[in-house]
Amino acid sequence: MSNKLQSINLNKVPNHIAIIMDGNGRWAKGRGMQRVFGHKNALTAVREAVAGASDIGTKYITLYAFSTENWNRPKLEVDALMSLLVSTLKKELPSFQENEIKINSIGNIDQLPKKTQKVLTNIIEETKKNTKITLTFALSYGSREEIVNAIKNISKKVVNNELDIEKIDENIINNHLYTFNLPDVDLMIRTSGEQRISNFLLWQMAYAELYFTEILWPDFRKENLFDAIIDYQNRERRFGKTSEQIDINE
Ligand code: IPE
Ligand code: IPE
Ligand code: MG
To answer: Which end of the chain, C or N, has fewer beta carbons within 10 A?
Structure first.
């Protein structure tokens, strides 16, 4: 594993990594267990991903933990996920502090159970001075809902004469998204072999590199993150320019 870390160019790491943590249910089923067993075994992968990102100097990591569409799952599973979230956040607080992890959240947080909201707000407050890495949990998050919410808030400002319609630009929109305090995503990783975005950070991933792996989320370890980073570093991000233009600037 240290070999993999050594192959990484630390001057070219993604600043913001977003992960769609998928495959918990299949991981559990493969062991003849209930889906919730998979969610319970996802914590090691979360720790490894965050520690790996921190090792290489990535400043932002965003984890898709619960989507707006996930509310449509059986109530038993939704309830289990919510209580798992509360217990995990509480349990991990000392480690967040020790590793200087700042916790952040994006999504329609008002929709979460009051208890979850309370614990989340508390953890965000407790860790706000940490500066090594920002760990954002996407909870009750949907990119389309986020955009609708942004449009409503921008429209209110226009109606109240606080904002001139001609001043609306990409920056204004960015500032009204849940991710207003986060940079664009550089690398998006999805586990479990599914190759789709599932309503995650559509605006923010406009120019992200996408990486898909067959690994099921509970099996994800640092070395899998490093594989993704090595793959990312072998790509050329052109942002619309030509390859020759990129070579000159390097
Ligand atoms: C991802 O694993 C976790 C959440 C969506 C909360 P899944 O629960 O989607 O697992 P699969 O895709 O059914 O295997
Ligand atoms: C996406 O996973 C949401 C999270 C990982 C939280 P899903 O497993 O819900 O996605 P789809 O519905 O299969 O695309
Ligand atoms: Mg899934």
So the answer is: C
Report the separation in Å between the CA atom of 83 and the middle of ligand 3, taken as the mean of its atom positions: 19
What sign has the CA pseudo-torsion 160, 164, 168, 171? negative
pLDDT digits (tens, 9 = 90+) for 65-103: 999 999 999 999 999 999 999 999 999 999 999 999 999
132-186 pLDDT, tens digit each: 999 999 999 999 999 999 999 999 999 999 999 999 999 999 999 999 999 999 9
Tell me whether residue 144 is exposed, middle or buried, using C-beta atoms within 10 angstroms of its C-beta: 0 to 12, 13 to 18, 19 or more: exposed
DSSP per-residue letters across 161-200: TSS-GGG--HHHHHHTSTTTTSPPPSEEEE-TT----TTS
Closest residue to atom 8 of ligand 2, CA basis: 22
Q: State the Cα–Cα distance between residues 163 and 173, nearest whole angstrom.
A: 12
Q: What is the domain partition of the chain in residue ranges?
A: 13-142+184-234
Task: Determine the topology of domain 13-142+184-234 in CATH.
Answer: Undecaprenyl pyrophosphate synthetase (3.40.1180)
27 assigned ligand-binding residue: yes
Residue 35 assigned ligand-binding role: yes
